[in-house]
Write a structure and sequence with these properties.
The chain is mainly β. 6% of the residues lie in helices and 37% in strands. It contains 1 helix and 20 strands. Strands 1, 3, 5, 7, 8, 10, 11, 13, 14, 16, 17, 19 and 20 form a 13-stranded mixed β-sheet that branches. Strands 2-4-6-9-12-15-18 form a 7-stranded parallel β-sheet, with no helix packed on it. The longest helix has 13 residues.
Length: 212
């Protein structure tokens, strides 16, 4: 279980101001906690729904002192259900018209990168280790055998998924509930529920696994 240092009053005040600025309901409950030096920016056309609390820049791990950044761009949607913590150095971008949804009791550790160009959904009770990359776009068109595949495709990560450090998750991937992705893996294909996957590209190496 994660523990956090006590709130500093300036951080709480900043959280209230951020929440009020973006017209989130009941800003005094601090639906967006954004520590000093960290960034939360929302375009006026974007939609932010926080049913709980989004904490940006809290010390999920001690592996970074960098600022955390959350940007929600034009016509994008950010949906937070429950308590979600983005650690120091985490950069999360919801690009124009895209959607990012994160479930309760999920944390993202230091220096990880999340970039949603279409849709990224992360379930509840997930442990996302440091220095991850989760990205649902190639950013450039690729053609082979006269075929041009879609440049973007949604990423869906189930509930209670553990993703090790330095993992890369690419477009079009679904990771099932309870799965574990070993450190350093590159996930390019679906991973079934309750499996341990490892390697580049990641492959299932054990089934019927569980973790606490």
């Amino acid at each position: 279980m994660l523990t956090y240092k006590s709130h500093y009053l300036p951080d709480v005040i900043k959280g209230i101001l951020v929440s009020a600025k973006y017209s989130l309901k009941n800003p005094f409950s601090v639906p967006v906690y954004c520590g000093r030096g960290h960034i939360f920016k929302k375009d006026k056309t974007a939609k932010v729904v926080i049913n709980g609390r989004l904490s940006i820049g809290r010390p999920v791990s001690e592996l970074s002192e960098a600022k955390a950044v959350m940007r929600v761009r034009k016509n994008a949607t950010l949906e937070i259900n429950g308590k979600v913590n983005l650690g120091r150095g985490v950069v999360a971008i919801v690009n124009d018209g895209a959607r990012l949804k994160i479930g309760n009791n999920t944390y993202v550790a230091a220096d990880s990168k999340i970039y949603a160009s279409q849709e990224i959904v992360i379930g509840a009770d997930c442990a996302l280790s440091w220095d991850l990359t989760i990205i649902d776009s190639d950013f450039h068109e690729l053609e082979y055998n006269d075929v041009t595949p879609p440049m973007t495709a949604p990423i869906h990560i189930g509930n209670h998924v553990w993703i090790g450090c330095k993992v890369t998750i690419l477009k079009g991937v679904t990771i099932g509930d309870g799965a574990i992705i070993a450190a350093g893996s590159v996930v390019t294909n679906d991973i079934p529920p309750g499996c341990l996957a490892a390697g580049n590209p990641a492959r299932v190496i054990k089934e019927n696994v569980s973790w606490d």
